[in-house]
């Protein structure tokens, strides 16, 4: 099991026609998730080539903290409510950095030439 911070990519696939339901459900959770003491980064994306696919990119202090977050009542309630909108259950990948960024260090975004 990974130790230390982990990046998580959560994948959602909406049933066609239910994309706005997913967006609404997740939009209500963005600020509470970002305020979680173990969440270091959270961003939610819609796939440019398929509006039924969504991915969140998250960084958590540990895999245990992320799994505890998934088991929290407000996340469980969202998952239960979203079942009718999803084509398949939520899936996620766990990633561990091979060279973590140090505190207060950022990776600059380079302009496109």
Automatic annotation (TrEMBL):
Domain ABM, first and last residues per copy: 6-94
Any GO MF annotation of the entry: monooxygenase activity
Keywords: Monooxygenase, Oxidoreductase
Entry-linked InterPro entries: ABM_dom (IPR007138), AI-2_Isomerase_LsrG (IPR050744), Dimeric_a/b-barrel (IPR011008)
Cited Pfam families: ABM
Record-given protein name: Antibiotic biosynthesis monooxygenase
Record organism: Chloracidobacterium validum
Upper classification of the organism: Bacteria, Pseudomonadati, Acidobacteriota, Terriglobia, Terriglobales
């Amino acid at each position: 099991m990974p130790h230390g911070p982990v990046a998580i990519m959560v994948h959602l696939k909406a049933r066609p026609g239910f994309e706005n339901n997913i967006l609404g459900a997740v939009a209500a959770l963005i600020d509470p998730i970002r305020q979680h003491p173990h969440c270091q980064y959270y961003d939610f994306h819609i796939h440019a080539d398929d509006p039924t696919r969504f991915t969140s990119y998250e960084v958590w202090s540990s895999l245990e903290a992320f799994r505890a977050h998934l088991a929290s009542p407000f996340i469980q309630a969202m998952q239960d409510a979203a079942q009718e909108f999803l084509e398949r259950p939520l899936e996620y990948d766990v990633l561990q950095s091979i060279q973590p960024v140090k505190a207060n260090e950022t990776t600059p975004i380079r302009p496109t030439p």
